[in-house]
Input
Amino acid sequence: QSALTQPASVSGSPGQSITISCTGTSNDIGVYDYVSWYQQHPGKAPQLMIYHVTNRPSGISDRFSASKSGNTASLTISGLQAEDEADYYCSSYTTNSLYVFGTGTKVSLL
Amino acid sequence: QVQLVESGGGLVKPGGSLRLSCAVSGFTLIDYYMSWIRQSPGKGLEWVSYISYSGNAIYYADSVRGRFTISRDNAKNSLYLQMNSLRADDTALYYCVRLDRSLDGFDMWGQGTMVTVSS
Output
């Protein structure tokens, strides 16, 4: 049950787009469309941003979009804003009915 | 509104036990799976365990299986985590989290309760 692999950090200028990758295996991301993404600001609990690979819960900005190809999922933030500075985690359901999180990515503005 | 409030954290010696509780409100507990997720200081999220609507299905991360026990009391709107044989690497903020199976996502989180395992 190894963590999904994410880049430690990603940065971008205000207004730009950035993409965070999340690499798993054929036992998790590669076999299920049960990938979700979470945003966590310092000292706060995480918030669900994306579920079922591409879907946004009510209230989540459409600047957040996501996709999946093979064993890798991706989260894109468009029109980067100061409020987007946070840690982001992916998660997937696995073939042994467990859940696994990614290693986390710190997003910062240049 | 939906609320999840954890309690029961604290300082415990290696090998000791602790029982976490989570009181929920604002939704009907039996309508949801529930989960515990932890975060060590300065580290990432780690899924710990989840339990189905009535407790018939329970799963644990490899790191806690055999030492932790998740349970729920829907009548009391409560979720629990019994933690035994605690180790230093169990030190973390433990979140009580609602798992919406229609989303396959963790959609509501408590603020967490801190567990510190140290001699």
About this structure: The mean pLDDT of chain A is 97. Chain A touches chain B at residues 1, 3, 34, 36, 38, 40, 45-48, 51-52, 55, 57, 87, 89, 91, 93, 97-104 (CB under 8 Å). Strands of chain A lie at 9-12, 18-23, 35-40, 47-50, 64-69, 72-77, 86-93, 99-101, 105-109. The longest strand of chain A covers residues 86-93.
